[in-house]
Amino acid sequence: MTDMRNQRKDEHIENYLKSEILTDTLFKDVYLEHVALADISINQIDTSMDFLGKKLSMPLLINAMTGGGEVGWDINEDLSSICQELGLAMAVGSEAIAIDDESSRESFSLMKDKDLVRIGNLGAEKSLEDYIFAKDLIDAHMMQVHLNMAQELVMGEGDKDFRSWRSNIKSLVENLDLPIMVKETGCGISARVAKDLLAMGVKYIDISGKGGTNFIEIEDLRDVDKDFSDFYDWGIPTAKAIIDIRKISDEAFIIASGGIRTALDIAKALALGADMVAISGEVLRYLLHGGYHAAEEYLKDLNHKFKIIMCLLGVKNIEELKKVDYKLVGRLKELVE
């Protein structure tokens, strides 16, 4: 089982780099108005935010990717070091492999003593005891509970029974002594599901909408005997998920992920109602193709361009950006209305 999990994690990374189907976040259907005359200097702009008792340099989380094996060790070491240097939060990939495989644990625990917001990760099927183990493994400030039904259903060896998930999440909220973030894995969280999560006491919701890493395609590439390409476009576009969830709650802390690649994506996500954004696939691509320096420079450039966009919108901080007026056009407007 451990060997199979290690192989699957390596195949996920390999197939992510092979994946070609780019679905639509619908951020292109969000219009932000240029402000040509603003009493502002770019040196005034503050992109920072407080999150879980720490100050982040910008509202950005490097989201769950991997762990276990030599490749996972290298990725987590590099990304956690970059996050520490740049003042960003980071979530590790699923820690399930570390529960049974002692040799994989260092690929997660390596970030335990680093000065950054550390977020652990397990599937919704795991027990409270598993979550306590995963929390302690990295000394986490928060735990992610990932929902990956679509991935499991197309994965040959995946789970097919999800009846325990709801009760498990409720138990975690009631019994785990740190905040819980519930996240999807590329198909989005709807207003209906968000209402259920909020009723359970979940405050942090990572929508992980359609438009980013496509685990249906990634799993499909692993199995040459089956073809799930007709499911590649399945899911809720990231922009729509943000709007839908913000409409039902002012209290939910929304993390926008799923196809966040550019500074303009970040600005649009926050204007639509997100509290912060998360990136995984894009920074992984820079890291694997260009190395540590390329990934670091991508994130630095992202912050610089984000400041430029805030200046062009005439806003000085994140709270002002979240109040910027926007208009919807095209398919996004049709779906929302």
Layout of SSEs?
Layout: H1 2-18, E1 30-32, E2 49-51, E3 54-56, E4 60-62, H2 69-86, E5 89-91, H3 96-100, H4 106-109, E6 118-123, H5 128-138, E7 142-147, H6 149-154, H7 165-175, E8 180-184, H8 191-200, E9 204-206, H9 215-222, H10 238-248, E10 253-256, H11 263-272, E11 276-279, H12 281-290, H13 292-313, H14 318-321, E12 326-328, H15 330-336
Structure report:
- α1 crosses α9 and α2 packs across α13.
- The strands form three sheets. The chain has an eight-stranded parallel β-barrel with strand order 4-5-6-7-8-9-10-11, surrounded by six helices. A two-stranded antiparallel sheet has the order 1-12. Strands 2-3 form a two-stranded antiparallel ribbon.
- The model has no long low-confidence stretch (mean pLDDT 93).
- The longest helix is centred in the last third of the chain and has 22 residues.
- The protein contains 15 helices and twelve strands.
- Helices cover 46% and strands 14% of the residues.
- β8, α8 and β9 form a beta-alpha-beta unit.
- The chain is α/β, with parallel strands linked by helices and 337 residues long.
Rg calculated over all Cα atoms: 19 Å
Task: Report helical residue fraction.
Answer: 40-55%
Number of strands: 12
Terminal-residue CA separation: 47 Å
Order of helices and strands: HEEEEHEHHEHEHHEHEHHEHEHHHEH
Strand percentage lies at: 5-15%
| Global shape | globular
Strand order of the largest sheet: 4-5-6-7-8-9-10-11
Q: Supply the helix-strand structural class.
A: alpha/beta
**Average pLDDT figure:** 93
Task: List low-pLDDT spans.
Answer: none
The helix count comes to 15
Q: How many strands, what sense, and barrel or not for the largest sheet? A: 8 strands, parallel, barrel
